Every structure is written in structure tokens, then in C-alpha cells.
Amino acid sequence: MDAIQQQFVQLLEKQQISLSTRQLDQFELYYKTLVEWNEKMNLTGITERDQVYLKHFYDSLSVSFNYNVGEVSTVADIGSGAGFPSIPLKIAFPHLKITIVDSLNKRILFLRELVAQLGLMDTECVHGRAEDIARLSKYRDQFDLVTARAVARLQVLNEFCLPFVKKGGTFIAMKGSEIDEELSEASFSLAELRGKVVKVNRMQLPIEESIRHFVEIHKLSSTPAKYPRKAGIPLKEPLVKL
Fold first, then answer.
1. Residue 10, phi then psi, degrees to nearest 5
2. Mean pLDDT of all residues in the chain?
């Protein structure tokens, strides 16, 4: 174990997360595969090893710092990009059944290759727009936990993500430093999509000290039939009270 991995392990131990040698090997293989594929397609602007471990791996696992991931079994990650936060969560919490939805087929090809390389079970990578996939009965109102990391503003994310959450389940939106305006903008979409903000957790990323917010939203009942609207409409016409 080198200094970068040692720091990663120590930071996680402060959050009561311990990793086996196999899990550490998986993170290292993840890093190498990410950098290799990044030369052929744009997966991330962050490629320095220490930064990937901190800003991608540790940051992804921070979902679990204030939320008991051990108590959930099914997770959907919407607009996952290069697999954040779902793949780090799957490595650290192997019991999770993961579904990743992304609209770009090239990213899905990368993720499928990554899942195979890492030997991850119960991990499905689905190519399609969130608005279309959420209409399929296999995915609609099905998941204990749904995550999205830096995908869109909250009023839009709610329409992308809440249709995947089962009644009584949770959607966690991973956001940056400014959150108050987004929360007030999102109140109408939350009401329409049967969601309720139960808490907002704030975290300072170690070492570089940037601020993260985790908006935890509880799903009160099944998604109304008219949502999500057709692909592209949520971004163009976010749900706001007229």
C-alpha cells in the first residue's frame, strides 16, 4: 500500500469504513481503467491519481457517511458518467444491487468493461435517457436508494430521479457549495413528484476543503402517471409553479 492508498484508507476509517486488500485492488484497477479509457474518450477532467482517489472515490463514498447504505439493497445511479458514486459504493458495499443509467452509449460500454474487469456482481449498466428508462415497469418505483452526482439543478433532477425511487425509498442528490436557491426552486417539483426533503448534510472534502451538500429526499408515494415527461422536456421546461 503506497501513501495515496494509505491516506484513502485512513480517511475512510474515520468514517467507520474499512477496506480489504481485494477492495483496495479494485479501486486501483478502477483508477487504471479510468485513465486508460480517458485517453480515448472524455470521462473525467481529473486524472492525477491522488485527486481521483479523493475527488472521485472518497467523494462517491461520502454518500454513506450520513446515510446507512448497509440497510438498502437496490441502488440506481442516474447520469453516472464514469461510475460515480455507484461503482465506489459497490466496491465498498458489495451487497448492493446496482443499476446505472446513462444516456451516452460510449460511457455505458466503458462501465460494462469496468464492471467485468472488477468482477462486480449484480451491476447492470443501462443505456438510455432517464426519462425513458423511468417509464419501464422494471425500473419505475423500484429502488431503495437513487443517487445523482452533479447532473443538473435539483428541480430537474427530481424529475429524472424520483420516478426510480420506491415508495418509502430515498433519493440523495450530491451537490456543490451553493444549495439554498436550488432548494427553494425545487419545492414545486418535489410536491408534484411526491418527494420531501428530510435533511441536507454538509461535508467539507478533506485536504482541498471544498464544500459538498447531500440533499436527502424521501419518496412519499408512487410517481404520478404523467411523470417523467418526454425526454428533453425536464431540462428545457423545469417544473415550476406558474
1. -65, -40
2. 95
> In angstroms, rounded to a whole number, what is the distance separating the alpha carbons of residues 111 and 116?
9
Q: What b/e readout covers 43-63, taking b as 16+ CB neighbours within 10 angstroms?
A: bbeeeeeeebbbbbbbbbbbb
pLDDT at 141: 98
DSSP string of 7-25? Answer: HHHHHHHTTT----HHHHH
Q: Is 80 within 8 Å of 132 (Cβ atoms)?
A: no
Residue 229 CA neighbour count, 13 Å, CB half: 13
CB 82 within 8 A of CB 102: no
Q: How many CB atoms lie within 10 A of CB 186?
A: 26
Residue 216 and residue 83: Cα distance in Å, rounded? Answer: 20
Residues in the chain: 242
Q: How far apart are CA 8 and CA 63, in angstroms?
A: 16
- CB-CB contact of 191 with 221 (8 Å): no
Can you give the pTM of this predicted structure? 0.96
CA distance 237 to 188: 13
- Strand pairing category for 143-149 and 165-175: parallel
Q: What is the pLDDT of residues 45-65, one digit of tens each?
A: 999 999 999 999 999 999 999
Q: Give per-residue pLDDT as tens, 88-133.
A: 999 999 999 999 999 999 999 999 999 999 999 999 999 999 999 9
